[in-house]
């Protein structure tokens, strides 16, 4: 019997440890909402899968208008052949966006009068105009390096001797680009870069059955780890939002020619934000952007793609990663992919250079995470409960102060929405500094 009691004791001890041990996919609280790219009316998205000199670049088209007028001009470091270009599926970018989006999570205070374990942790074929293209190209200093069709896109890869001739060639061959484009083309020509140019093949687009243009993918080898953004400013009437998802087997990617800051994170907010998270995140991002003088890139997420905590979407499986351009995996290897998500809001005057990146071995985890802590609503009759009530008002006031600082919202309106206890004295200097 004595041995039996010892055995039972050991079993209960093991069960107790297991019961209170955090599991890999769980967290204390639950995911509520995410701040994905749908918050923004005009948001470009780019996926870059990079290992060494090998790159797969996926560009989502946030094009609004008649597809007949669509034209994409992207500087690339090398001449691309047809087999290096693919038309991808937009769902893959949506999956990356959902997985890496800043998120709102909820916690609920338990009864302070009950002893509990606190698990919260800090946390082609040649076109009919082919002859005319070759003839005009020679006189303008433009060379057609490659020409083919992939999916619904007719593609040419060009090299050029001078920007005016390149702009003239593009216009003469039906590419509707804005006036003055040659000024932004000049730096790329000086760097001897090529130009990947795409427009929609209307017949193929109609046959595809798609309503929207699909992303274009390019695979190439080059020591240059960069993303050209200046040409995207030609059509811009306002500041542009760009989301870059960098996938690497090494660790975090870094932007080398602009300062990068982490988006404000791990802050506790009033619980009414649950119904206003989109408004909060947009206001918070704009406030942070202005405080940094509109000259920084924001890190919104950095994580090993084999896990997530909390999960706003499940990690991508091997097939989805392959569709996103990850080329270093096979079914027998583990999911060795690290994702870095940058959010860049840029304009021509504040971001005069293209984005330059480098791979690092830094695998430090980061996420944009915002916390709601619901007060305990039950009856409290104990010394610890009375102390909880006193500290609760201080906590609620801190949440109000934090929200006002992050968003520049009116603190009186925040207090009213937060339903702070009436008659509570508010120190006069708090409103002065807010």
Primary descriptors:
11 helices, four-stranded mixed beta sheet, alpha+beta, 2 domains, single chain, 27% strand, disordered N terminus, 434 residues, 20 strands
How many structural domains are formed by the residues?
Answer: 2
> Which class best fits the helix and strand makeup?
alpha+beta
Strand content: 25-35%
Low-confidence stretches: 1-29, 115-135
Number of strands: 20
Largest sheet: 9 strands, mixed
Looking at the chains present, what oligomeric state does this protein adopt?
single chain
Mean pLDDT: 82
Helical amount: 25-40%
Q: Could you tell me how far the N terminus lies from the C terminus, measured between alpha carbons in angstroms?
A: 69 Å
Can you count the helices?
11
What is the general shape? elongated
Integer-rounded radius of gyration: 27 Å
Describe what you observe in this structure:
It is built from eleven helices and 20 strands. It is α+β, with helices and mostly antiparallel strands and 434 residues long. The protein folds into two domains: 353 residues, no CATH class; 56 residues, no CATH class. β7 and β8 form a beta hairpin. α3 packs antiparallel against α4, α4 packs across α5 and α9 packs antiparallel against α10. The chain starts with a helix and ends with a helix. The N terminus is likely disordered.
